[in-house]
Design goal:
Blueprint (H helix, E strand, L loop, with lengths): L2 H8 L34 E11 L5 E8 L3 H5 L5 H5 L4 H9 E4 L7 H5 L3 H16 L4 E5 L6 E5 L9
Antiparallel strand pairs: 1-2, 2-3, 4-5
């Protein structure tokens, strides 16, 4: 036995391989860390078209509009309104006045605007409000029993008076 080999084995690092000798396994695509999920954008505004349309003081008819999702504040603040306390049916008028962000070329939409709408347009907006604030939509994917073609159906009723 040679003296140099005995001295080398006595070293505490003698059994540890050199750093370049350590093999790092390559990652395959299946083992690679997953990419961060792409954040989904929440749709908060929904376009609509009134069945009849709001007629302003100049006689202009406004039919196209946008309604945003309601917040808890939107639903709570009208409860403090004296008109709502005296007549609970007025709640939907005040609430819709808060969540309709655009109607035709009107510069501003408020409860007074909603108050002067035709009853059919008010009923349409109430139904539309329920649809977008429930779960975003009331559609379901189905398949035709005859041809197996996929399509969507409206569960909440898209015509006035249906639900």
């Amino acid at each position: 036995m040679r003296r140099t080999s005995a001295r080398a084995s006595a070293s505490p690092l003698a059994d540890v391989p050199a750093p370049e000798a350590v093999a790092v396994p390559e990652q395959t695509p299946a083992q690679a860390p997953a990419a961060a999920p792409v954040p989904q954008r929440l749709q908060t505004e929904f376009p609509f078209e009134l069945p009849r349309g709001y007629v302003d003081e100049a006689g202009t008819v406004h039919r196209d509009g946008v309604m945003r999702l309601s917040t808890a504040r939107d639903e709570l603040i009208p409860l403090r309104d004296v008109r709502v306390q005296e007549n609970p049916a007025y709640l939907s008028v005040v609430l819709l006045g808060r969540v309709i962000t655009r109607l035709g070329t009107l510069s501003m939409v408020h409860d007074g605007t909603v108050e002067n709408m035709f009853a059919s347009d008010l009923a349409f907006l109430q139904d539309f409000y329920r649809q977008i604030n429930a779960e975003g939509h009331t559609r379901a994917a189905v398949e035709c029993p005859h041809c197996s073609e996929p399509f969507e159906v409206e569960l909440g009723g898209s015509r006035l008076g249906e639900s």
